[in-house]
C-alpha cells in the first residue's frame, strides 16, 4: 500500500511514513493511492467475525508490508483492551429502524479513543526504527486532546504538545487536561478559537522548526485518525443487515474524519446509501453540503461544544476524491481557501457529493427538546451531540426501510450537568474541579511564541 498527498507534489510514502507524520511534504494530507474494494459476498462473510478480526480485515490492507501479520494482529487487538463493553461499539435502538452506535466505551468515553489508542500503539511500534525524538502535536477543544494524552501516556519515547482555546474548552474537560503529566504533556492555551488553534498547528507543521524532532499530528490530519473509524461503519452495517442491506448514518459533525470514513467505507463496498452531516448552529458544513459554499466563520458556544468550530481539515481529502485525485486542482482550491476563508467546488463535483450526502443544522432549543423526547420515548439519556445526530437522521432520512444509525460519539455522563438540568440524569452530578492555574494564551497567529514554547518543552524533558 502506497500513500500520496492530496496536493500532488509529494512522492509516494509507505504506512510507516504516514503514521510518523504531521502533513505531507507539500502541505497536503496523506491519502491511500488506492482503496481496497470488496464484493457484497465477501463483506457478508464477515458478519460472524469477532470485533478484533473484523478490524484486521478492514485495516490490514492499508498497512501493507509495513508490519508482519502477527505483530499487526496483536497491536490491533490491544488497541481495544481498555474499552468497557464487550461489543466495543454496541447498538441501541431508539425507534423504528433507528439506532445509536455507542462509540464512547473507550478509556476517555468518546469516539476519539478509537484513533488515539490505535495511533499511540502504531507510533510506539514504528518510532524506535527512526532516529531522534518525536513530538505528538495537535489542537483540541476537549475530547481529542484528552484521548491523545491518555493513549500516549504509556509511550515513553513521545512527548505531547496540546493547543487549546483559552475560553473554548468545557470546564470538566479543561480540568482533566490540566491533570496531565507536565513531564510528558505541554499544554499551550491560545487566545482565540479552536479554529485558530488548528490553523496554528497547520502553519507549524508546514514550517517545522525543530529538525531534530519528528512531528506527529494527533488530529485526524494524520491518516490513522480516519482509518480507525472506518471499522465501526462495517461493524454497524454487519450487525444490522449482514453487510448486504443498505444502511444510512447520521454523523454529528465533531470532525470531518468520521464523515470521510463513512465515504471510504462505502467506496470499499459497504452498502451505505446515505450519510447525513449533522451540525448544531455552527453550520459551515451544512452550508457546504446544501449550497456548495464553505467558509470559516465566528463560532458560537453551544451545549454540544465538540462541534463549536468551522475548520474541517479532512474536507481536503474528500475534495481530492471528488476531483478524481487531481492534486493540482486540490492545491489551487485549498490555497484559495487558506487565503480567503471561502471555498466552492465545481458543480459536477458538488452534485457527486450530494448523491451520498445530506445535511441538517439543529438549533439550541431543538437539541434540548430532542434530549427530552428521547428520554421520554425510550428511557435513553443521550448527550447533546447525539441528540443533534438523532434529530437530523429522523428529519433527513431518505428511506424508512434502511436502518438509520446515529454515531453516539460522547458518553452521556460527560453532559451530566445539562441532563440533570433537564431532569433526565438519574444520579448526582460531580462538582467540577478547577485547573490549578490559568495561563494567558498565545495570541492568534503568534507562531514565533509557539515555536519558543515547543523548544522549551522538548529541551526540558529529562
UniProtKB/TrEMBL annotation:
Which family does this protein fall into?
A: Belongs to the threonine synthase family.
Record gene name: thrC
Q: What is this protein called?
A: Threonine synthase
Checking NCBIfam families in the record gives:
thrC
Which Pfam families does the record cross-reference, listed alphabetically? PALP (PF00291), Thr_synth_N (PF14821)
Q: Where is the Threonine synthase N-terminal domain?
A: 2-80
Every copy of the Tryptophan synthase beta chain-like PALP domain together lies at 89-344
Name the keywords, alphabetized: Lyase, Pyridoxal phosphate
Enzyme Commission numbers on file: 4.2.3.1
Coiled-coil boundaries: none
Q: Name one GO molecular function term.
A: threonine synthase activity
Q: Per its UniProt record, what SUPFAM superfamilies does this chain match? A: Tryptophan synthase beta subunit-like PLP-dependent enzymes (SSF53686)
Amino acid at each position: 500500500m502506497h500513500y500520496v498527498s492530496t496536493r500532488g507534489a509529494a512522492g509516494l510514502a509507505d504506512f510507516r511514513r504516514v503514521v510518523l507524520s504531521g502533513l505531507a511534504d507539500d502541505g497536503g494530507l496523506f491519502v491511500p493511492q488506492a482503496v481496497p474494494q470488496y464484493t457484497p459476498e465477501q463483506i457478508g462473510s464477515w458478519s460472524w467475525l469477532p470485533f478484533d478480526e473484523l478490524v484486521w480485515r478492514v485495516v490490514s490492507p492499508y498497512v501493507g508490508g509495513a508490519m508482519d501479520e502477527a505483530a499487526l494482529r496483536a497491536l490491533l487487538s490491544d488497541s481495544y483492551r481498555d474499552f468497557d463493553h464487550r461489543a466495543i461499539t454496541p447498538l441501541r435502538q431508539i425507534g423504528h429502524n433507528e439506532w445509536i452506535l455507542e462509540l464512547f466505551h473507550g478509556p476517555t468515553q468518546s469516539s476519539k479513543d478509537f484513533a488515539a489508542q490505535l495511533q499511540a500503539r502504531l507510533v510506539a511500534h514504528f518510532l524506535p526504527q527512526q532516529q531522534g525524538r518525536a513530538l505528538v502535536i495537535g489542537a483540541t477543544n476537549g475530547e481529542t486532546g484528552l484521548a491523545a494524552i491518555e493513549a500516549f501516556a504509556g509511550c515513553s519515547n513521545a512527548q505531547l504538545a496540546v493547543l487549546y482555546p483559552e475560553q473554548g474548552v468545557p470546564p470538566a474537560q479543561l480540568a482533566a487536561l490540566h491533570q496531565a503529566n507536565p513531564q510528558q504533556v505541554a499544554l499551550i492555551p491560545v487566545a482565540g478559537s479552536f479554529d485558530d488553534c488548528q490553523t496554528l498547528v497547520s502553519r507549524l507543521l508546514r514550517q517545522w522548526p525543530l529538525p531534530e524532532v519528528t512531528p506527529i499530528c494527533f488530529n485526524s490530519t494524520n491518516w490513522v485518525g480516519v482509518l480507525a473509524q472506518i471499522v465501526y461503519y462495517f461493524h454497524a452495517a454487519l450487525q444490522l443487515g449482514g453487510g448486504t442491506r443498505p444502511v444510512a448514518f447520521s454523523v454529528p459533525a465533531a470532525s470531518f474524519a468520521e464523515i470521510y470514513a463513512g465515504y471510504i467505507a462505502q467506496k470499499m463496498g459497504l452498502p451505505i446509501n446515505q450519510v447525513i452531516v449533522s451540525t448544531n448552529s455552527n453550520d459551515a458544513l451544512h452550508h457546504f453540503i446544501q449550497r456548495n459554499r464553505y467558509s470559516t466563520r465566528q463560532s458560537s458556544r453551544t451545549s454540544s461544544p465538540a462541534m463549536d468550530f468551522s475548520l474541517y481539515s479532512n474536507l481536503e481529502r474528500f475534495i481530492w476524491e471528488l476531483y478524481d485525485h487531481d492534486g493540482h486542482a486540490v492545491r489551487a482550491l485549498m490555497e484559495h481557501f487558506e487565503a480567503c476563508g471561502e471555498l466552492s467546488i465545481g458543480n459536477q463535483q458538488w452534485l457527486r457529493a450530494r448523491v451520498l450526502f445530506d445535511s441538517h443544522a439543529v438549533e439550541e432549543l431543538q437539541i434540548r427538546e430532542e434530549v427530552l423526547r428521547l428520554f421520554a420515548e425510550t428511557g435513553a439519556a443521550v448527550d447533546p451531540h447525539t441528540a443533534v445526530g438523532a434529530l437530523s437522521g429522523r428529519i433527513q432520512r431518505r428511506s424508512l426501510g434502511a436502518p438509520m444509525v446515529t454515531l453516539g460519539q460522547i458518553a452521556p455522563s460527560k453532559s451530566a450537568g445539562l441532563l440533570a438540568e433537564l431532569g433526565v440524569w438519574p444520579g448526582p452530578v460531580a462538582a467540577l474541579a478547577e485547573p490549578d492555574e490559568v495561563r494567558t494564551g498565545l495570541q492568534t497567529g503568534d507562531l514565533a511564541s509557539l515555536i519558543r514554547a515547543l523548544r522549551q518543552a522538548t529541551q526540558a524533558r529529562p
